Amino acid sequence: MHPSRRPLIAGNWKMFHGGRSSVELASGVVAFARELPSVDVVVAPPFTALAAIAETLDGSKVGLAAQNLYPKDTGAFTGEISAPFLKECGCAWAIVGHSERRQVFGETDAFVAEKTAAALASDLVPIVCVGETLAQREAGETLRIVKAQVDAVLDVIARASTAVAVAYEPVWAIGTGKTAGPAEAEEVHAAIRSWLERKDPALAARTRILYGGSVKADNAASLLACPNVDGALVGGASLDPGSFGAIARATKG
Ligand code: PGA
Q1: How far apart, in Å, do the first and last CA atoms of the chain sit?
Q2: Is the C-beta atom of 179 inside 6 A of ligand 1?
Q3: Helix, strand or coil for residue 166?
Q4: Is residue 169 annotated as part of the catalytic site, yes or no?
Q5: Position in ligand 1 atom list of the atom nearest CA 129
Q6: Torsion of CA 26, 31, 35, 36, to 10 degrees
Q7: Is residue 184 part of a domain?
Q8: What is the total count of domains within the chain?
Q9: DSSP β-bridge partners for residue 208
Q10: Residue owning the nearest CA to atom 6 of ligand 1
Q11: What is the residue range of 216's domain?
Q12: The domain that contains 172 carries what CATH number?
């Protein structure tokens, strides 16, 4: 397997732990990550905690991610944060196109592609999120929807020298306690890998495809054992170093 497909476990803290409690959480992550040399561990705190957490992570192997970015470097965009600012703040990663951004803030596939390009231009590794809603799954539209989301970023990620990550997160599984079974997850992951392969075999070989959506300590091992599941994007269970660490230990790494 390509070395860039080392297991990657990323914690998306969403709009939780924006202040002092985030530093404590980050310290717990640093402690367990030390014991897992072959697993890449990343945390994505809210913007207000990034600078403090960058200090906490300094000298550790835990990577810092932003949860979002705006795809312009500077300018009159009140309330927005650019990729160069995130880079300067200590981020090495950026989540883009999370389903909450798509659903709550109306982000389109094209906008997600712009953000992906902006992240790469500032040397941030994008974690590009894709996934279908429950209605789309029930209508048998899963692969069509996910393919459209992947296609939107395909040229951008194929051109990049950096190995990006794609996170397959079925919307119906996020924060609901329902998770795709390993076979359901693997079906979509294998499809994503095949679309990348068709674009460029080297792209398929280096891209990590993460699963996300109610990943917990007790279901992580079976999901992470799937051949095309290279890691996890974890929401709720990443807010506790105990459960987040257990998920990281469940990797193949
Ligand atoms: P969850 O969130 O693990 O709480 O379902 C995952 C995500 O939104 O990335």
Answers
A1: 12
A2: no
A3: strand
A4: yes
A5: 9
A6: 0
A7: yes
A8: 1
A9: 165
A10: 235
A11: 8-252
A12: 3.20.20.70
Would residue 114 show up in a list of annotated catalytic residues for this protein? Answer: no
pLDDT in tens for each of the 253 residues of the chain? 788 899 999 999 999 998 889 999 999 999 999 999 999 999 999 999 999 999 999 999 999 999 999 999 999 999 999 999 999 999 999 999 999 999 999 999 999 999 999 999 999 999 999 999 999 999 999 999 999 999 999 999 999 999 999 999 999 998 888 888 999 999 999 999 999 999 999 999 999 999 999 999 999 999 999 999 999 999 999 999 999 999 999 996 5
* Structural domain contains residue 2: no
Ligand 1 atom nearest residue 175's Cα: 5
233 lines ligand 1 (CB under 6 A): yes
What's the whole-model pTM score?
0.97
Helices (H), 89-141: 99-104, 109-121, 134-138
In a domain, 145, yes or no: yes
> Residue with structure tokens 């990577």?
63
Query: What pLDDT is recorded for position 253?
Result: 59
CA pair distance 243, 28, nearest whole angstrom: 11
In a domain, 45, yes or no: yes
Task: Give the helix, strand, coil percentages of the chain, each rounded to 5.
Answer: 50, 15, 35
Tell me which of 16, 233, 244 to substitute to probe ligand 1's pocket, judged by most ligand atoms within 8 Å of the beta carbon.
233
Shortest-distance atom of ligand 1 to CA 100:
8
Neighbour tally for 19: CB within 10 Å: 11
Catalytic hit among 100, 107, 169, 186? 169
Residue nearest to ligand 1 atom 9, measured at CA: 235
